[in-house]
Amino acid sequence: MPDIIRLLPDSVANQIAAGEVIQRPASAVKELLENAIDAGATSVRVIIKDAGKTLIQVIDNGCGMSPTDARMSFERHATSKIENAKDLFSIRTLGFRGEALASIAAIAHIEMKTRKESDELGTLLVIEGSKVKSQEETTCPAGTSIAVKNLFFNVPARRNFLKSDVLEFRHIIEEFQRVAMVHPDIEISLHHNEKPVFQLNKTNFKQRIVNIFGNPMNEKLVPVELKTEQVNISGFVGKPETARKTRGEQYFFANGRFIRHAYLNHAVEQAYQELIPDSSYPTYFLNVGVDPGSIDVNIHPTKTEVNFQYGQLVYSAVRAAVKQSLGMFGISPTLDFDAEPGFNINMPKGYQPKPPTISINPEYNPFASPKPSVKAGISANRKEWEQLFEINKTELSTGLISTETTEIASGGKEESRLFENKSELPETTAKLLQVHNRFIVAVVRSGMMVIDQQKAIERIEYEKLTSKLSSHKVEKQQCLYPHTVHLAPGDASILDEIIEELGNIGFEISSLGSGTYVLQCLPASHNPLNPEGLIESLIENFKNNKPLLALGKQPGVAAVVAKDIAMKFNRSLKPQEMQLIVDELFACQIPEIAADGSKIVRVLAIREIEKLFQ
Known about the structure:
This protein is an alpha+beta fold. 34% of the residues lie in helices and 22% in strands. It is globular, with a radius of gyration of 33 Å.
């Protein structure tokens, strides 16, 4: 039997490696930016065309390469950043695997110009699919310019799975921001289709954050600083009132490298405990500095997942640093243990407070009379209890409270059959009860029905919007005053992606360029209190809410708008309003399930209620 195991050709091996390292155009941008920074560049330009599918070019003024180094840089596992296995346990650079350029060259057309400061002429290298087409001398400025053209040209399956240009460019912006943010001492710019997106000059960390996310961020940040022998924490966190319903700007950097670390995320959230609602998330931009020998960055090819040798220590330091910062700037409640344990009360001049007095009956004998019995106590308070919990006979007749044994016998019906049997629906004559401005309670034949008030309204408004979309009968209302919205480039790209769907629903939004938009019309049925906040809510949901994204862009936009409408009904409702919600909910096509798949209605059978008292 012939041998069947053989070595793969280098071109195939490189394509396999490319599948791990280069997942989309944004991955190539990240790798090239990290190489430019490792080369000591103080100025970096990124030029993108067609969201990176046609061109990704990174130009830097770093150290450059010799002709031999230029050629060797595209070989697998070729790097200048480590020499032996010990170096893997003390990584001080962003790149070190020696796979990035080889992986990119395996799936794209590469043109690289590079020159060292000490050389008169540079090197021009052309590679297509791992094959070197030419290498010659050329004139070029000191540094390196790498142009990646026709990404995935020889891997059509991977190219076909790329998303829209708007979505792919958004991923590029995210990678660009992560690198640019933590290196404020580098001048860096981003151009897309010959239009400037970012032009960031050298500055400090806070100003770099503001330049990326917009001027409103300047008033939201509080500085964080903590230094110990093992770890240094620095950066900025958002004030509690700026917390969002979804995870927004949350960035961790370890030794100048963007990382994802759920353990440290939890540390920050613990520091905000009791300062923000449970369903909100804080904003933070934190740098964690540790000894390179105490952190392992060689876990994943993307190098965003790391392990700390002293994880608990870093966790405690992050939590303490954030909590200290919030307390120092008067944001979190603090206790002054040095203050006198008394009240600071302004007394009138000459006022002498009298000490309290207690009158005592010397003849009192606790054993002289018998203790009151429990029965006597009940009899004494019976009248008060009856007045407090008096049950109106009319409520019994309407079905709010029922003691008939026939209902107990029917308590075993399954909830799945609830909406098939019309007799199980709340009757229009039944009284409805609102609980904590969140739930509507009604009595049905099998037991008690609990309706999530906000989700019910979301379902009603969602089906109204989708019905109008399908019939193309969307009515608009002109805003009395146009609303101007300023967005960061990443958020602006999301709005560009869904702006057509917003127009179909009834929004009229026009772009003024540079992330500025004007909201001129709204759906006739919707008058939000904060239109700018609605736009931001739409962007946040499409950035973080996967269930809504799964619906598709148009239904997803309708679901988010319906959610915003429902927020206004998070209040006490009149009986007529509750009845209208119930009637409209059960007129929907799917009354029991919300757009995101969660339950709207829950029925507690009589037997389930009985178990609560056993």
